[in-house]
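Quick note —
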Amino acid sequence: MSVALALRDVHKRYGKTRALDGLSFEVPTGVLLGFLGPNGAGKTTTFRTILGLARPDRGVIEVLGMRVGPETNRIAKRVGAIVEEPGLYGFLSGRDNLVVAADTLGFGHGRIDGLLAFVELTGDADRKVAGYSKGMRQRLALAAALLGDPEMLFLDEPLDGLDPAGQSVLRDQLRRLVDEEGKTIVMSTHDLADVSQLADRVVVINRGKVVTEGTLEELTAGGDRVRVVVGAPDEARRVLAAAGFETDGAASEIWVTGSDGAGIVRALAEAGLYPSAVIPERRTLEEVFLRVTEESS
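Predicted structure written out below.
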């Protein structure tokens, strides 16, 4: 799998504050990465250094195979971004905002109507943005970020402040960009539920360093219990207790302390009991996030 973004030992200070402290990670092409961290972890600084808005003190950043710094101008034509508050003009219509953005960035106007349809703003395209809701402004900012048909998007809190309907629309649009158009998206957010629903991979940083990364499945694996579903639960509990397992739970569902699923199945099978399911417990992303950020603070 090719790499869309690579950061290697990136450092950045603001006075005595160490914003990035040897930050290193990679993002494969064609995935949606959830980029997480507590306030002050360095997420916005990371975005700004990737986009050439801030210069790292040392380290290497490569976007789509091009190095930030020497090739920042080339990179800018192949990426789109929403960083901090979208820069929209309230006195202009939604359509005119896209026209201005296209002219400023050197793109044509040919994609504007299609993008307005994609973000479901065709009917409001000629209204002044000052009258838009927060969700409409976020969707218009996404359309602006897509004007150059970028291969990669950097989105800072794109779902922040949206109502549930607005969040649902924007989530669907982001997944379509990855699944149907093959774009790579790096999304910074505080909302772990959004990441759980959207992300293919997750990177968590704290104090300017990566504290954990991987797929959602990898990060949430490894709970401390196994759920066992079996037709004779009382007998199964006796068998498992005799085999040295600690159990709890009610009805046909039994929770067994530990992660020895094979040992559980073997003990039950030797007693003539065959469970219909043996499922390792999964941690929530919130549990993982809280643990790794507390350990690194």
